[in-house]
Amino acid sequence: MNNPLGILAGILVCSATLPVFLSTVSYNNIEINEPQKQEQSVDKEYINYESVDKTSPKINIYNHKTGKTQKMNMEEYLYGVLSGEMPSDFDIEALKAQAVAARTYVMYNQENGSSKHKGSAVCTDYTHCQEYKSEEELKKLKGEDWIKNSYPKIKQAINETKGHIITYDGNPILPLYFSTSSGKTENSEEVFSSEYPYLRSVDSPYDKYAPKYASTLKITNKDFVSKLKSTYSDINIDENNISSQIKIVSRSDGGAVNKIKLGNKELTGRDIRNILNLNSANFEIKFDDNTLDFIVKGYGHGVGMSQWGAEGMAQEGYKYYEILSHYYKDTKIKDIY
Fold it and tell me: Which end of the chain has fewer surrounding CB within 10 Å, N or C?
């Protein structure tokens, strides 16, 4: 779920966790308020969820590069997923949270038949399911030094959460995640078509230190109108006096643009995000004589766990299960093997 993003629309598919390419930033010596919805104390004694300790299962994975289905040990598969979904220099607790989310995603697909790959829970294509790269691919991509110095940390995060998944009412959740929030995450139904009780908007204050927390797009009135008309041929909007023809009608609980009026047509913030390739649907618009400036906050769809928010919490001393319980409301971790 590094650059990204289909996700739920009616029938939930693997693309729900389209990854976001990330880079790193230091959180050392940052003082910041704790997330408001976080109930556990950072001083709480470490909880050990490992109690089942069974052999990890083998799962069917569709390899989009070979066009074949292969059987793989779940935990070994997750080594390749976590290596692509989150930077290895993130805090170990953030990596553990991502590991549990990735494992839960597989179990959710298996139990709900959400995969489009017949006989397989997931595929190896990051544009469709979760990012995955074999150790050989990682060695070519990242080099021997990374395999020697960073890959062990990835394996540690997987091994120390072996068999752990996130559940709601005893069942695996749909563990959506994304790169960077705008300061709050989004309710699932305000972004996608379905409402989930555990995918609620929560505070995520640490994201403001992420490298892609803020971004700006400047576009001429002419180019903006041209892009709109190439997508919506029936839209009635003119580049002259354009500020009087655009109005943000409503926003989500998380701050994203819900509805925006452009000329005679009402669109969603997601529509504008897609047309202009914005980092998120949380934006303000500033008007000049001949240009529009889109001031954007966050990176990604905004639903579920913010990866940079998880890193910030980990840097403040939160454990992975505290991070997960903050971003996935009223859930519990279950050890299934």
Answer: C
Q: What residues pair up with 164 in beta bridges, in sequence order?
A: 335
List all residues 6 or more positions away from 186 whose beta carbon is below 8 Å from its beta carbon.
201, 252, 253, 254, 256, 301, 302, 303
Identify whether residues 174 and 29 lie together within a single domain.
Answer: yes
What pTM was estimated for this model as a whole? 0.83
Q: What is the pLDDT of residue 10?
A: 39
For helices 307-315 and 320-327, what crossing angle results, to 10°?
140
Q: In the chain, where does DSSP find H-type helix?
A: 74-85, 92-112, 135-142, 144-149, 151-159, 221-231, 269-276, 307-315, 320-327
Are 32 and 205 in contact, with CB atoms under 8 Å apart?
yes
Residue 96 belongs to a domain: yes
Q: What is the dihedral of CA 75, 77, 81, 87, to 10 degrees?
A: 60
- The pair of three-digit structure tokens given for residue 292, joined into one six-digit string: 């529009």
Taking the chain (337 residues) in runs of 10, the rounded mean pLDDT of each run is: 42 37 31 40 56 88 90 96 96 98 95 75 86 94 97 98 96 97 97 95 96 98 97 96 97 97 97 98 96 98 98 97 98 95
Is residue 9, in this structure, part of any structural domain at all?
A: no
For residues 122 and 270, membership in a common domain is answered with: no
Query: In this structure, are residues 303 and 185 in contact, taking their beta carbons and an 8 Å threshold?
Result: yes
292 and 307, same structural domain? no
Number of domains in the chain: 2
Burial class for 148, CB neighbours closer than 10 Å (0-12, 13-18, 19+):
exposed
| pLDDT the model gives residue 188 | 97
Return contacts of 221-227, CB within 8 angstroms, 24+ apart.
Answer: 221/290, 221/291, 221/292, 222/290, 224/276, 224/292, 227/275, 227/276
Query: Do 94 and 153 fall within a single domain?
Result: yes
What local confidence, expressed as pLDDT, does residue 193 receive? Answer: 85
